[in-house]
Amino acid sequence: MDLTHMDRTQMPATPVFCTIVPPHILSNLADAHEHARRTLEHDGTHRARRLDIVARGLTPGEPDAAADKPKRTIYDAGHQETVPGKKVHAESDKPAKDVSVNRAHAGLGATFELYLKVYGRKSIDGAGLPLNATIHYGQKYDNAFWDGERMVFGDGDGDLFLDFTIPVDVIGHELTHGVTQYTANLDYQGQSGALNESISDVFGSLIKQYALGQSTDQADWLIGAGLLGPNVTGKALRSMKAPGTAYNDDVLGKDPQPATMKGYVETADDNGGVHLNSGIPNHAFYLAATALGGNAWEKAGQVWYDVLTGGDLAKDAKFADFAALTVGAARARFGAGDEHEAMVKAWTQVGVSTE
Hints:
The chain has eleven helices and ten strands. A hairpin with a 3-residue loop joins strand 9 and strand 10. It is globular.
């Protein structure tokens, strides 16, 4: 069943308080690093506060004439834990002296551009929603998050994590939670929560690849490359190409993400391991995209987008539900050819049924 624009706008969207650095990393750091403990406690508080946004039932409006152009505003929290903070940059302003302002502005724009130029989507809600971001949030705050209304960036502690405006895929990841919020509205727990996280990683990676003009074989398939501090043994927060290999550090620990269902993690932590088990659909996307080659946003990305926005993805979908929908979407858009075969093979390789 395809949802019409009117049908979608009548559905209350459920914002997800998602942070790019998952709780299992911060938990590993909490005992030895005060800033990590404060970040972990802060994030737990904000997960409760997001219920206020949920209660308001955010829905997209009708797109106006300027909905095909981004409307970006950057605020500065001044190292306080308040949002939005002081307005420091508007859409038409020249580049600022503060590089965090410029990176946030550019990352919001790169996200807007992929969704508009590749998928015809006008901002994250499909109706030209203004994109707001707050930088310099908190004191050595080791995270970035989408709170249901805006992007918020910490500066990092300078040791374990650097400024969170650095990786464009981090910005794309968090804003894609907004896209999911306004479309499939996936529950943030268990396998549906892992799909929610994975979809953000997929499109975060595609946003970086599109901005850099990278093909599937040129992409690094890392999430958060450039974010880890100089003394951390690791490349990024996650690897879609090889889940479980992004970092192996004395302080951060070892990347625990599974790549297939054989390693699926049963846990009550992190809403049922949403940041862990997302490695499985992440890897499926990587396998499908690289099997097809070329630009990942054109075929594999299009299939993922069709499933996310098509109206048939249930809020409590399991991996197998999503997999079956990708197979059907590939056939519907491309026919029973390479694209369809790539979907079936990719999900089979990670141990997820497509029937």
